[in-house]
Amino acid sequence: MVEAFDVPVDPIARFLAAWSRAQSTAPAGVDPAAMTLATTSAALEPSARVVLLRDVTADGFRFFTNYGSRKARDLDSTGRAALCFHWFWLEEQVRVEGAVSRATPAESDAYFASRPRGSQIGAWASRQGEPLASREVLDVRYRETERRYDGQPVPRPPFWGGFTLVPDVIEFWRAGEYRLHDRLQYRRQGAGWTARRLYP
């Protein structure tokens, strides 16, 4: 049988402990920061894709993207999203739901400055999600951007930045024998959280 979660722990602290465990045990070539980001458009059209978690604090879960992308348009339109982490090697999953807002320009600038130069140039070269005539067109745009910023720092594009998801609900899932999984759900209540177990 699966070892039951202990309940009286802050969910952000619990997530950070789980994420640290996932990072220290991840198989080669697997990024434990990968998470599924689910959004809906203003017309209630659902969409999901894998993105990377870049930071998590008491303020929320932060990730970065092109502000012209479909996910960014969805997030700006509805202000809501869901995340799902699946650490298969630990047989654990974490689901997060909440309100989303853009990171501050200073936060986006700081993270962009920490990225590899090639990724900085790629952010300028890509019109994320727009039709692309050929791979060659993208390669040309990349080389043009390289030349433009040759010998100087690459600034953050105004169309690129972060989002922060402030969780309302965080659910922890651990696999159990005979599919008797352990599920523990935290729900924000005022300045604190309530916790309850759920049937698998």
Ordered list of secondary-structure elements with their pairings:
Blueprint: H1 11-25, E1 34-40, E2 46-52, E3 55-57, E4 60-66, H2 70-78, E5 80-87, E6 92-102, H3 105-114, H4 117-125, H5 135-148, E7 160-174, E8 182-189, E9 192-198
Could you characterize the architecture of this molecule?
The protein is an alpha+beta fold. It has a single domain, classed as Electron Transport, Fmn-binding Protein, Chain A (Pnp Oxidase, Chain A, Roll), CATH 2.30.110.10. Helices cover 28% and strands 36% of the residues. The protein contains five helices and nine strands. Strands 1, 2, 3, 4, 5, 6, 7, 8 and 9 form a nine-stranded antiparallel β-sheet that branches. The radius of gyration is 19 Å and the shape is elongated. The mean pLDDT is 94.
Comma- or semicolon-separated keywords:
200 residues, alpha+beta, Pnp Oxidase, Chain A, 9-stranded antiparallel beta sheet, 5 helices, 9 strands
Query: What is the straight-line distance between the termini?
Result: 13 Å
Question: In terms of per-residue confidence, which ranges show pLDDT below 50 for 5 or more consecutive residues?
Answer: none
CATH topology, anyone? Pnp Oxidase, Chain A
According to CATH, the homologous superfamily is: Electron Transport, Fmn-binding Protein, Chain A
What is the overall silhouette? elongated
Category from helices, strands and their pairing: alpha+beta
Sheet-strand content, in percent, reads 35-45%
Rg: 19 Å
Number of helical runs? 5
> What is the β-strand count?
9
What is the residue-mean pLDDT, rounded to a whole number? 94
Largest sheet: 9 strands, antiparallel
The CATH architecture category equals Roll
Written as H for each helix and E for each strand, in order along the chain, the element string is: HEEEEHEEHHHEEE
How much helicity do the residues have?
A: 25-40%
Q: According to CATH, what is the class? A: Mainly Beta
Number of domains: 1
